[in-house]
């Protein structure tokens, strides 16, 4: 499917001013502009085809993080839903989510830029854990900002980050969730930019982050496409689906399939649906769809999943939505919990709450015919559910 | 790549108003140039719009205490360039129901004899619409705007609307801004050039950052426009030091801390008076 009458949508480099269509850009205080320019130049040089950086990045993802991850053909779930479900198993990476792909890349870049400290924001804690892991691996100092609400609902991840040598700073401003953790990380960065790299965890923020993080995540989409073709006799899946908070696993996934005929579907949390309920605006350095009031004040997102509790979405997703190349759906807390249990019981896989949103949409879409019986669906299982066990236990009680 | 600087009326606010009789408020750059010509250092206090029931009285008190211009914050939910004090002030104002129209309507109802410059974040501008936002400002008597998350590269939509509407857009220069960028920034800044004293967010500091005077000197050699330094100026002594190589200072968090702690408008005015007296002594 291509947008009506237009050239096919590609997920290539953004324009020189960091735009995907009218989205993206670099809306940042002057103090941080030179650092983003430096980062853009460093990444562009590092990401040249056949560079030493790429070789090292790929080697670490293979030998340290456990790539390639498998594609699992889910027989019992498929039988239950009447569609063939293939899962891209990012839950099986080191640290348990796709976030490791990004931080290995950004950690290496930090060394290339001669910086010694990482700051990161985290919602569910997956990116915080991944950042702390990369910092330990590369010998970098690491400070992770995490909303106070999230430090409470993700206590185990807080402990893991500390074990890995990172300092976790609970954020008490604003809604005390992911959005405010980004604010605090930016405030830290503006004061420490000479020695510090901001290791942003998703395809959001100012240019070059949305492009850079998508490129660092496209390995999962490229792998999945090859694996699908091997499994399907050279064919592509009919539908490709991934959950979307900021949208990094979805961006990496879509990058692998954007030039196929596959229908691309991103699934947001019902209480944080930037595409569904948002209006274009500027937050955290980017122009994108945002939940906001009539005067431009940012609204709080609400979700059982800390990782999807974000009022915005990566700018390239806003572009893909407007261009009609991807559609964005929502899933609510209750159906997410049901989908999580369904996967656990039929396949022996406990997903994180975030990818359980993608699964919840698929369950609904398969049952109501939105996805036709007999279709093949590739779903990115972006992370494992261990971190959420306590919260799910409480919710199901 | 120093661009040509726009010439300004030499004679301050009277001449400007005569040439644009329909615009409300006092134009920024002519007034600041006139004040500078009179030999005094410029003092620009900041007040968070909508903070408390008496915020307009606070504004009047700081003006009466010797402000050369006044900055009014239009609060945003996610002020990433601001430290804890302005964050708290913004949040409280928003909780009190402050909106851009409520603040600008209140400003429209009073005569402020010095330039008023709005300080806000870009999403408020974007949400209202560029031309509409510029008109809202001027209708409220506000003739300058500081939008810290709009760097040079992103000015394209706002600048033409601001220029056409009679709003002077003040740009911020940082200690890390390279020379060529500093020149362009000075050329495109209107009203004055805002020098950011330090690498960091707004908020009170125990001492003035060493980067402040270095940047002030660089700005003064790059432009003839008024150069006003801000961020972290907490005491009259720091203000004097910061102004020594520049044309003046912004004082923000130190004043809003007083308001948050319950100070009356008169007490905030007294604090501004102390900054005024110190700057006048030099």
Please bin the fraction of helical residues of chain B. Answer: 40-55%
pLDDT < 50 stretches of chain A: none
Question: What's the count of strands of chain A?
Answer: 14
Gross geometry of chain A: globular
Structural class of chain B: alpha/beta
CATH domain topology of the largest domain in chain A: Rossmann fold
Helix content, binned percent of chain A: 40-55%
Classified by CATH, the class of the largest domain in chain A is: Alpha Beta
This entry's quaternary arrangement is heterodimer
Give the biggest beta sheet of chain B: 8 strands, parallel, barrel
The total number of structural domains of chain A is: 2
Strand content of chain A: 15-25%
Essential attributes:
heterodimer; A: alpha/beta; Rossmann fold; six-stranded mixed β-sheet; 15 helices; 44% helix; 17% strand; globular; B: 282 residues; alpha/beta; TIM Barrel; eight-stranded parallel beta barrel; 13 helices; 13% strand
Structure description:
With 397 residues, chain A is an alpha/beta fold. Chain A has helices at residues 33-46, 52-63, 75-81, 99-112, 126-138, 148-153, 155-163, 178-192, 209-231, 248-257, 274-277, 315-323, 333-347, 353-368, 389-396, and strands at 19-20, 23-24, 71-74, 84-89, 117-122, 141-147, 167-171, 196-198, 239-243, 263-269, 279-283, 286-290, 326-331, 376-381. In chain A, 44% of the residues lie in helices and 17% in strands. Chain A is globular. Chain B has one domain: Aldolase class I (TIM Barrel, Alpha-Beta Barrel). In chain B, 46% of the residues lie in helices and 13% in strands. Chain B has an 8-stranded parallel beta barrel, surrounded by 9 helices. The relative contact order of chain B is 0.17. Chain A binds chain B through residues 17, 25-31, 33-35, 173-174, 179-180, 183, 186-187, 190-194, 279-285, 287, 290, 292, 294-298, and chain B through 76-78, 80-81, 83-84, 87, 91, 94, 99-100, 121-128, 148-154, 171-178, 181, 185, 196, 198-201.
